[in-house]
Amino acid sequence: MTDATGGGRLVVDGLEKQYELDGAEVPVVKGVTFTIEPGTFTSLLGPSGCGKTTTLRCVAGLEHSNGGVISLDGNVLSTGTKHVSPDRRDIGMVFQNYAIWPHMTVLANAVFPLQVSAKRLPKQEARRRAMEALELVQLDAYAHRPATALSGGQQQRLALARALAHRPKLLLLDEPLSNLDAKLRDTMRHELRALQQRLGITALYVTHDQSEALSMSDRVAVMNQGRIVQEAAPRDLYYSPADRFVADFVGRVNMIPAVVRSRDDSGDALIEAFGSRMVTPCPPAIGTGADVTVTFRPESVRWHDSAPDRPNVLPARVARVEFLGEIVEYEAEVLHGETVVGTLVARGAPLRSPSSGSRIFLELDPTACRVLAA
Amino acid sequence: MRIATIIAGAVIFLLLAIPLAVQVITAFRGPFLPFGVSSAKWSVENFQTLWGLRDDFWAVLGSTAAFVGGSTVLSLLMAFGLAWVTVRTDAPMRRVISVLVVVPFIIPPIVKAQAYLLMLSPESGVLNQLLRLLPGDLVIDPYSFVTMTFIQALTNVTFPFLMIVPILTSMDGSLEESARVSGASWPKTLRRVTLPMLWPGLLGVAVLTFILGLGSLEIPLLFGQQSGKSIFALKLWSLISAGAGELPQYGLAAAWGCVFLVITTIAFVIYLRATRNAERRASISGKGFRPTVMKLGAWKIPVMVLVVVFVLLTAILPLFALLWSSITPYPIAFSFDALVTQTQFGSFGAVLADPEFWASLGRTLVIAGGSATIACVVATVLAYGIARGRRTGWSKAMDLFASSSVAIPAVIVGFAMFLTFMVINPVIPLAGTLVALVIAYSYRVSIAYRSGYSATLQIRMELEEAALVSGASPLQGFRKVVVPLLMPTVFAVWIQMFVLGTNEFTLPAFLATPETRPLSVYMYAMISPRSAQLYQPDQGAAMALIFTLLVFVIGYGLQWAVSLRAIGRAKRRRPLPGIGGTPVIEPDEPVSPDTRSVAAQDLADQRELAKR
């Protein structure tokens, strides 16, 4: 399997899914649309109950969708009425709890997809391919152990090997790292991404952990209440959130209310927040006089002992300092005269941090600020 | 899959519903059989007759209530005490005690009944001999009502014990600890916290013990005939085994059956409510905890004395009495003199040389094995279908129905099956065949159904879904993933039902003919003075011992064989994420409608379980 398996192009268009709960139809997925280009890695990111797992399960065929079209490489897998069963979709899937069959050996788990597929392989060939898949995840030495003798991380790898053994066009991953401890999770994250890129397989990954989504994906689709609110490359998502939900969900963020005072043609706007004037880039749709929210990341705030001679500086008092190891996080009360008009969270290097109660000046980098409609 | 579920459901429905329906119809249709005889017509005559004999009716009702109720309370007290000692105290040899309490489970009740009879014999009984050694003039009358009740309690104590142990084990000790920390003494904690918490669970156990007691014929048959008090099981049995020249009064017997069916239905409803409350109170937190252990201190000696007395009464003395009876030609009191001069071992040889012994043993194995297989296969298929299927009104009703066979006393099943085979005999001649016995024994499907249901819930949906996305068809997934994972449970239940089947006496007492009788009935013939030619008490005792040994060897042998495989696997096994209980590390994400098909299924199942 060292040769790239190649990936398929997944198109999900207007996916709808309702559940019946106590007699009522509860919509869970409301018209989700996205495309995954062959060989790329897309994450569905969102809070509990946003519909991301349901979307994944519809793609897998484990749920019958109520509407919309799912197709892989042009083959329609499901519409509201048509439903190709999961065993005919040419997919591999890794489950949250690994779903390793406890009554089989490691090899038997990995060879299973090759034994049951419609195009049945000769025994030797199936075995060879399963071993290859195990080699990919460095489990070939464990092939004849009972699957349950593996540690959590190894079971995770086995689940991956099993999902890849029959060289599917699409790999589906349902929060596969959430049961691992923090250290192992980081390692697996790198391995998973490296493997996906090496094989060139198309991957759809579901997670509620933004750092997983940001670090592994080519594209991230943030979901909320059954809809995709923004789909973008990780960097764009982080620095240009489409709305307050995305800004808030992906990483820590400061959101301050402001009013647009004037605009110029270059796309910058003069805004007023906390009684101070600031300059930030502003989307053209927002006109003068509009109430807006300015968002910026805690790490884009710099602090000074004395006011620098630059725009976008707010006077503040340090309310709380929290030492987190690699960084220091502090909460600052923004002052207008002597009254507190708001609070901001900022982050900085731990070696030089303000002390609690001291008066400081916060400088916001205009390029890191995003103006959103309030 | 769907079709298999429907077929299994239909089989269970027919198995339970038809006999009960036939019984009810018989109660309303004439004095004899409801169909095919000229006297059959719709009437309430049987109930009028029953009411006409109301002195008798009330007497039977009263003595049955006292007998079954009394023995239930007694065996619950004993079972709770023993379970408490083994689970919650620092008593020495707790494991040995729990084994000694459980071992009588495999002694057939009819053997136990006979052993007690021998042990209590006023002249030669070993217990009365022992009592004579004590000061005072104590002799136990084996045929008194109190003795009979007590014997029934001793015979059945294993059943509530096996059910109470897990309840006590799973109780969250921190709830008691917090009561203790709040300043409550041990007795006060027990009264204010422990018992109220356990109460619904114990009530459920009480109801099932009550139904078990109501349904068993052994003790009333051996003890009750002489006590002059008529117990329901005995009444039913004697109504259909009419003396010479009389017509059996099936209609009247069916009317009796209906009355008691109503009583057990009420009891079953209480049971359902009690267990639902038990779920609601949820003393089971699912975390790995050990229940706190009570230090016995000065109480250690009295507690151990009581335990020893119990083991003497339930295991050692009965077995000794059997052994003594088997080596003496007629009932004589034990003495060393008699041991030297009177004993002979011919009875064992005679039993082993008796072709009827081997024939009835063979039938026992066939009936027990056949019925256990039928019940396990059908119940497991249905349990899987219902546990995995959509919840509809039908599936809920079927679920309740398949769980309800515990609520039908064996004696009613025996009688209703007997009637049914008589009624269908012109069309399907099964009366008096081994097949009839196999079908009748299979009625205990609910044991297999309940186990199959919870075993299915333990297999996470993900394991099956993983097979599907790997390219397996639903049938392949079932065969390669579900079946192997359900197998250990099914085997364990099979063994349990097989042992129950070999022990069964009540059902064949109604259904077996001399040509089809299993060992338990043949043995009863040997020890019952009423069966003139066959009456050979020493051979009967020898047979009882051989029988017990065989059940022991077969039951434990099978269990050992299965556990060897299971242990061999478990040794190489770590805690399994995906099967049985919680994953190794809990997912960060709380259960949400998003992961619905897995999570909501689990939730719905829990809710369903809670309702039960």
Automatic annotation (TrEMBL), chain A:
Q: Which residues form the ABC transporter domain?
A: 10-250
Query: Which GO MF terms does the UniProt record name?
Result: ABC-type transporter activity; ATP binding; ATP hydrolysis activity
Q: Name one GO cellular component term.
A: ATP-binding cassette (ABC) transporter complex, substrate-binding subunit-containing
Keywords, comma-separated and alphabetical: ATP-binding, Nucleotide-binding, Transport
**Which positions are tagged coiled coil?**
none
- Renumbered to this chain, the signal peptide range is none
Q: Which PANTHER family match?
A: ABC TRANSPORTER ATP-BINDING PROTEIN, MALTODEXTRIN IMPORT ATP-BINDING PROTEIN MSMX
Protein name (database record): Iron(III) transport system ATP-binding protein
